[in-house]
Structures are given as structure tokens and as C-alpha cells.
Amino acid sequence: MTLTYRALCYLHAFDHKLPIQNGLALESVLRTARLDYSVQSLERIDVLLDALRTTGKIRQDDDLDDPAKQNLLYLLAFYVGEVIGRSLGAAPQWASYEEMAARERQVNDPHFENSVTLLFAPGLTPRTAWLLPLASICSRLFDRPVTKSVLFSAGLMLPPESLRKPAALRPLPPLVPPAWPVALAPAVIDAPPWAAGDDLHYLFDNAQSMLREGRVVWGAVVQANNALFQPGPMAGAPGEILYDPQGRVPDADLHAMARMLLSLKGRRPDVPELASIAQYLGDEQVRVFGLDLPPSISPYPLKVSSTWFDRQHLPGGVLAQPLIPVLVSDAHPGAVLPLPAGSWPDNLRQAWSPAGLQPMADSPVVEAAPAAPVPDPEPAHRQPASLAGDGPQRVRGGSLLGRLLKR
Predict the structure, then answer these.
(1) Percent helix, strand and coil across the chain, each to the nearest 5
(2) Which tens digit of pLDDT belongs to each residue from 193-231?
(3) Which of 143, 233, 349, 386 is least surrounded by Cβ atoms within 10 Å, i.e. has the fewest?
């Protein structure tokens, strides 16, 4: 999973009082800081770190080997990034030390403080291109005399107006999916004759409303009729889509989760919630709308819905890629409509065609992204996977589709 997805899992777990793998140290103390996603709350983190330093609750020499205390510091770092992102109106992206080392020509040796890096789209934060939130957090926690502030460091990325009262006092609302770069065009969605007697009529009944008022997010194809992977006379076919209604989960993680779901088909998992998904995927007559993915697969809430792939609205009439823009709507929960190609940017339509990326083969989901082993859902944790012990962060020293949509 990507670091950006892990950050979402950490924050979702904390916000909903769910457990994190390996635990969360000093959670009751942390909650007294009232992390309400206001800019002012970053100053309360400074106060919290001062208290922890004064009381010696976390010591520099040996406590960073404690996974629960690592989790506390990672959670604070991800929270700082989320507050900055909400202030900017843009989703934060996270990179590991290895990813930054590959990106930058010069980078310091690996330490806990540079194990995660906060990034935003170029030009969005003119004062700095990236930030190491753990650097200011650890400095405030361990250094004497105190020389750094979490709020001041975040201010390098925060809009100036967000630092002034009363704006700084207001909790910032959750981010919404970015505006789609093309205006939604009218389209006719032809329902097959049998749809009136099928649960899929829910999608067709609300398709025009979704085309007018829905929001676009990315979906990952879990399974679809093989006939759609090449030109042919079939007008369309049902299929299953995995998606994040909030549009926050990176496409690579959606793709990996879709492959994981498909790996359940034909199996008999011992875990009941996985067994029910395996049974549903094996019965092509079963429809679901907004089925929650079990936390044993994804600690962050993702959903699966049955949908209809209309060949006339696919570029080239082929389901050529495993990731596709889809329409969702709060007014029609669980309904997911593949966005008709008439509302796609030109560069995405061109990349979708066989002359662009590699098309789908004979299997429902293939690696349009770099190949990776399909994760096994059976031993998956029911809690957000901790970053503790993932390499350099234990040492303390002195998307393809996103690129296609760039304008």
C-alpha cells in the first residue's frame, strides 16, 4: 500500500476511535489536544509536545523503538499534513524516504525524521515544495533548548490567511474530490430489456440525475464480462467496481484492492466477511450497491458496487484499462456509473486506447500499473497497518492517471 493510503488509515482510525496495529501510545493524553482539524490545533500539538518533553513520557534514546510511540508520532505527522491539505483545498501526498531519495539528487541519510515527506502539486505551496513534519515534531519533543514549532513549520505551506483569527480557530471541513477538468456532457444510457426485473434498475433509474449532479471519482474494475475487453457486438454488460466515495485513495491502492477482491472468487475463506464477498463475486446474478469493504481488507472505508459498462460510452468501445472515472452521488447511495467518454479529457481518451497503454488481456484485472504480487486477504490485519519497523524510520540520527490528467 502507498504511504498516502496508510496516512488515510491512521487518521480514519483515530477519528473513529478504532485500533491501530501495535497500539497508539498516550492516546488519552493525545485526545486532550482536541485535534479538530483547525490550524489552531497545530499550536496545541506544540503544547502537547512540550508537556511530553517536560514529563519525559517519550525519551529520545530508546522510546523510538516502541511501535506504539512511533505510531503516535506518525499520526501527528499525518494530521499536520491533513490540516495543511484542508487549508489548501488539496489532498496531501506522502512519500517514503526511498521515494524521495529516488526523486531528489541529494538526500540525507535515512533517519526517523525523514521517513515520511509531505508533498503537494507543484506551485500550490510556493514557499516550499515539500515538508518533513516529523522533523519539527521530534525537535520540539527532544531538543533543548526548543528551536522548532510544528505550527511555524506548517506555516511554510499554509495559506497566510489561514493563520489569522478567526479563520485559524475554525475546524476545516473534509476535502472533496477535485473538480473534473471537463464539463459533464449529456448522454443516453441504454438499459438492456432485462433491467426492469433486475436490481440493476436502481442504477438506470438514477443515471440521468447522476449525469447532472454526480461527482467524479476513480474506480477500479473488480470484474467484468470478458467480451468487453475486445471489440464486439455486445452492447454492454454488468460488472463490479471498487471505489472511494471521497476520492482520496490513490489509484494504485484501488487497483491492488480490486485484485485482492478478485482473488477471493472461487475460494472458501475461513473469515465469514471474506467468504460472503467470495460468494457474491461467484454469483453473477447478485447485485450490490455501496457494499462496505471489510476492515480485514481495508482499514479505510472503501465500497464495491455493481454497475453497467456501456460499450458506446467507452473509448474505442473496449474496457481497456482497470481504472476508470465513475460518477457517484450522495443522493443515490451506492449507485456507480462509469463516466461516459464524452466527458473525458482528450489525453485520457488517447491513453485509454490500445495505442496508448497496454489494453486488458483475457483476465478481468491486469497490471496497467507496475506488476506487483496480489496481496493475500486471509492474513490481513483488521487494523491500520503500523509503519513501525518498516526500515529507516526506526533509526534516529543527529500515479499514472494523475499524470494523464495534468493540464
Answers:
(1) 40, 10, 50
(2) 999 999 999 999 999 999 999 999 999 999 999 899 888
(3) 233
